[in-house]
Design a protein that fits this description.
Length: 85
């Protein structure tokens, strides 16, 4: 992607486990990668891996999910999204 455009790429993954995809999206040129709190894998480690791969980290949360856990991760993200679906 980066070869054809210099726009800001904001990527939102809606997958079961984003762990192995993080370096692939970094290589493809994503500037920001958002993952779901409810996805499999270690969320804190995945957010760290996103930042270590040179991207801004985002965290999407379902509204019905317990927010106590997301509060502890708030310092690790640049963007948060919450929906009711």
């Amino acid at each position: 992607m980066r070869k054809v455009s210099d726009i800001y790429f904001d990527t939102h993954l809606m997958v079961t486990d984003p762990t192995k995809l993080i370096p692939l999206f970094a290589k493809a040129g994503s500037n920001m990668l958002t993952i779901h709190l409810e996805s499999n894998g270690n969320t804190e480690e995945n957010l760290r891996a996103i930042r270590e791969n040179g991207m801004n980290a985002g965290l999407a949360i379902k509204a019905c999910y317990r927010l106590e856990r997301s509060h502890t991760l708030s310092a690790a993200v640049r963007y948060g999204a919450c929906n009711d679906r």
